[in-house]
Amino acid sequence: MQWITRAKALWRLLFQRQRVEDELDDEVQAYFEVLTDRYREQGLSSEEARRAVRMKFEKPEQVKEKVREARAGALLVLDALLKDVGYAFRMIRRNPGFSAAAACSLAIGIGATSAMYSVTDGLLLRPRQCRTARRSWRCLR
Amino acid sequence: MPKQAELLQGTLDLLILRTLELCPLHGVGISDRIEQVTRGVFVVGPGSLFPALHRLAEKGWIEGQWAALEKGRRVKKYALTSAGRAQLVAEKRSWRKVAVAMDRVLTEEA
């Protein structure tokens, strides 16, 4: 059932980005608060405790960035793909005339090419179905 | 303080899985436990701990759950899943293999 867990994680990363981000923020925040509490219990003031934690450990923002990087992997590819698709649709909407012209020229190009190929294939490439030259005019008709 | 040993690739995952085998822990708890048990040889800072935790959670080997701490603090505690338990057994075995092999190389008579 492991792929279900992975699929769920991927889904959450893609479509519940804000929630994932908030939760990571809470989690890292909590970690640093526990550490700060510990210094405070040793008799430091809140400010001193916070400074001590800042000196000794990486900054929360760096930690979060590293987590994001670790999670990326295959996701990055998917993410880039989704972004490209989104970009494409935005461009089509912004420039409908140009998009229509591009689509038309593609359609005409593909149509003309496949028509030419069908004719060439049918007339020149396939072996004719008759054996003698005499009967060949019938084949061609 | 003794000089910290560098963590081999993949060692951190095994350390975390093994630590969570005993009981669910939050981030600071995991760092503390690893430091205690290895007597300060391995010190796992948040910058390596959190990426590893999230990687393991994504693989479905551990699971995070918010829990209340004293003084009203909320922390995310991680526990081993059954898939994680299976993974731990496999990783323990392969680690022992590596350790035995390295030991043989190091103690080989010339």
Describe the 3D structure:
The complex is a heterodimer of chains A (141) and B (110). By secondary structure, chain A is mainly alpha-helical. Chain A is built from 7 helices and no strands. In chain A, α1 (2-15) packs across α2 and α2 (17-41) crosses α3 (46-56). Chain A is rod-shaped, with a radius of gyration of 33 Å. The mean pLDDT of chain A is 84. Chain B has 4 helices and 3 strands. Chain B is globular and about 60 Å long. Chain B has helices at residues 11-22, 27-37, 46-58, 82-107, and strands at residues 25-26, 62-68, 74-80. Chain B has 110 residues and is α+β, with helices and mostly antiparallel strands. In chain B, α1 crosses α4 (82-107). Chains A and B meet through α1, α2 and α4 of A and α3 and β3 of B.
Low-confidence stretches of chain B: none
Gap between N and C termini of chain B = 35 Å
Number of strands of chain A: 0
- Tally of DSSP β-strands of chain B: 3
Unreliable sequence segments of chain A = none
Largest contact between protein chains? A-B, 28 and 24 residues
What is the gyration radius of chain B calculated from CA atoms? 16 Å
**Helix fraction of chain B by DSSP (H/I, runs of at least 4):** 55-70%
